[in-house]
Amino acid sequence: MTHWLSALFLVAGAALCLLAAVGVLRLPDFFMRMHAATKAGVVGSGLILVGVGFADMAAGTWIKVSLAILFLLLTTPIAGHMLGRAAYVGGARLWRGTSGDALRGILRRAEFGKQSATRNPAAKPPSRIDTIVLALAKGPQMEQAMVQAIGLARENGAGLCGIAIIDVPRLRNVGPVPIGAGWHAQQMRERRIRLARHAAADVIQAFEERVSGSGLNWSVRLEEGRPARILSSLATPGCVLAVAPDGWFDQGVLDLKVHVSRRLRWSGLRREIVELEPATDTLAR
């Protein structure tokens, strides 16, 4: 009978953890996902621990199981409450189907991702623009981004700098490597970086061909490393950092589909976001 009870609790706990994982992936906002995650932490893990206790049936095991479940009951609700409160105060968005906000007017709530000022997408940034820095990355809208960057530089009498970045840390990340596959993983890393360098060279050549007859004061450079850190070092007052929306700095090798300006902000590039055109995301300081 104890084996059947053990199997029942283990399967039930594992199934609940699986449902919670699906909920974390599929539920529409942070608060619902946190609800699913906390259920896995307390109920799912608790059922698995009870199943372990029935499997062993030793007094010492039951004492450990009881202490572990007590620890989960004492800590997980508090941690969930603190995370939920921090997310609410920080301005995490509610699901659009939410019928009411019981904390409205009780807790001061920020507005997540709010710009410091509302601007017309076609409007120029308020400060003087001295340099346009265009991040060159292989993507379907790179040509259009070049045209817009050249137009913005002409409009403001600014210099134009094209910088091609190769996100080497991401390209080197090939995931868990099985024992004995280290040589193949290293070959994969080297091949990715080699392809990215070739793609970056092609983008640089296209930039040079497009800007050479523009009459602008321009330059171009190639960097390897973390994109946010490199671009942040260039983001000085009077400088506008322009990026095409669909081209990350893997240079098309990994075929990543990302929101470039949002990923840069999450990576540590803290700048005001201004969209000069619908097809180009621009980060400006």
Could you characterize the architecture of this molecule?
By secondary structure, the protein is α/β, with parallel strands linked by helices. It folds into 2 domains: 2-90, no CATH class; 131-172 and 185-284, Rossmann fold, CATH 3.40.50. The protein contains 8 helices and 6 strands, in the order αααβαβααβαβαββ. Strands 3-2-1-4-6-5 form a 6-stranded mixed β-sheet, sandwiched between helices. β1 (131-136), α4 (142-156) and β2 form a beta-alpha-beta unit. The termini are far apart.
Spatial strand sequence of the major β-sheet: 3-2-1-4-6-5
How much of the polypeptide forms β-strand, as a percent range?
5-15%
Largest sheet composition: 6 strands, mixed
Class by helix and strand content? alpha/beta
In whole angstroms, the N-to-C terminal distance is 68 Å
**Total tally of structural domains:** 2
Topology, number of strands: 6
- Assign the CATH class of the largest domain: Alpha Beta
Mean pLDDT: 80
Order of helices and strands: HHHEHEHHEHEHEE
- How does CATH name the architecture of the largest domain? 3-Layer(aba) Sandwich
Radius of gyration: 26 Å
Helix amount: 40-55%
Task: Note the overall shape.
Answer: elongated
According to CATH, the fold-level topology of the largest domain is Rossmann fold
Query: Helical element count?
Result: 8
Uncertain residue ranges: 115-126, 272-276, 278-285
